[in-house]
Design goal:
Number of helices: 8
Shape: globular
Structural class: alpha/beta
Bound molecules: NADPH dihydro-nicotinamide-adenine-dinucleotide phosphate
Helix content: 40-55%
Order of helices and strands: EHEHEHEHEHHEHHE
CATH architecture: 3-Layer(aba) Sandwich
Length: 245
């Protein structure tokens, strides 16, 4: 029987790669997007045309609880269940800590951490009674080691790591695995504020001498979701080219 994954923030970047990799490996995919504007959805619409009934696009802002619950309910109504949630939606911002406004703090922490709380609680309503399911949270190396000029982002991503470990302990007896992927620097729109020279410098600081690709993160998630990873829970795995060891 086909399994179903809900991927948040699937319109582009790592989320889009997750949708592509899972749907092409035989999963049903609920691809969450914040914005239904057609120009933003072209790659996802193309994927839907290719895989038709196996991919459903669902709008929700992960920071708005009723939208999250409606997304999850619609996904379950369509596919019967949600076997895996990948909390991928995120937003980054570069600013000196002293200049952060409450608005900045709330945007970054609500999207990266509170969204994970809402989405996880919402799918667990269905996973807990079945005593089956998985959650994969996308954190960041900055949540592991801290980041200058991204203190709120690093704090939120560190929170995601704490939440992952806590839920793995709490949900293990219910046979629900919870893991975290903490990527290094990955070539997506999230790097849009950086120049080519900045990116070359980041690559040079990375032992493997390059940035990562969204697909490399998605392939790791596919492994974590597989039977081969059935004894892995509460772990933080960091595909980062060696920049954090
Ligand atoms: P992108 O900026 O390319 O994509 C982020 C996605 O999240 C977009 O689809 C965006 O939607 C969505 N999103 C943002 N806010 C919300 C919201 N409130 N509700 C629903 N969706 C939302 O970034 P990446 O693909 O690089 O990032 C994916 C994840 O990986 C994030 O959690 C990020 O923090 C993490 N990460 C990224 C790294 C990198 O170097 N790229 C490194 C480490 C971690 P929309 O298109 O509408 O804006």
């Amino acid at each position: 029987m086909k399994k179903t994954v809900l991927v948040t923030g699937a319109a582009r970047g790592i989320g889009l790669a997750l949708a592509e990799v899972f749907v092409s490996n035989g999963w049903n995919v609920i691809a969450n997007v914040r914005n239904l504007a057609p120009d933003k959805l072209k790659p996802l619409q193309d994927l839907k045309e290719q895989f038709n009934h196996s991919l459903e696009i669902g709008q929700a802002d992960v920071t708005v609880r009723p939208q999250v619950d409606a997304l999850v309910n619609a996904g379950v109504a369509k596919f019967g269940t949600i076997d895996l949630l990948i909390n991928n939606a995120g937003v980054a911002q570069s600013k000196l800590f002293i200049d952060l406004t409450e608005q900045d703090w709330d945007l970054v922490c609500d999207t990266n951490l509170k969204g994970v709380f809402y989405c996880s609680q919402s799918v667990l309503r269905y996973m807990l009674p079945r005593k089956e399911g998985q959650i994969i949270n996308i954190s960041s190396i900055w949540g592991m080691v801290g980041a200058s000029c991204e203190a709120h982002y690093a704090a939120a991503k560190a929170g995601v790591i704490g939440l992952t470990k806590s839920l793995a302990k709490e949900l293990g007896p219910s046979k629900i695995r919870v893991n975290c992927i903490a990527p290094g620097i990955i070539e997506t729109d999230m790097l849009v504020g950086y120049t080519t020279a900045d990116k070359q410098e980041m690559a040079q600081k990375t032992p493997l001498q390059r940035l990562g690709t969204p697909r490399e993160i998605a392939e790791l998630a596919l492994f974590l979701a597989s039977e081969q990873a059935s004894f892995i829970t509460g772990q933080v795995i960091s595909p980062n080219g060696g920049i954090v060891i």
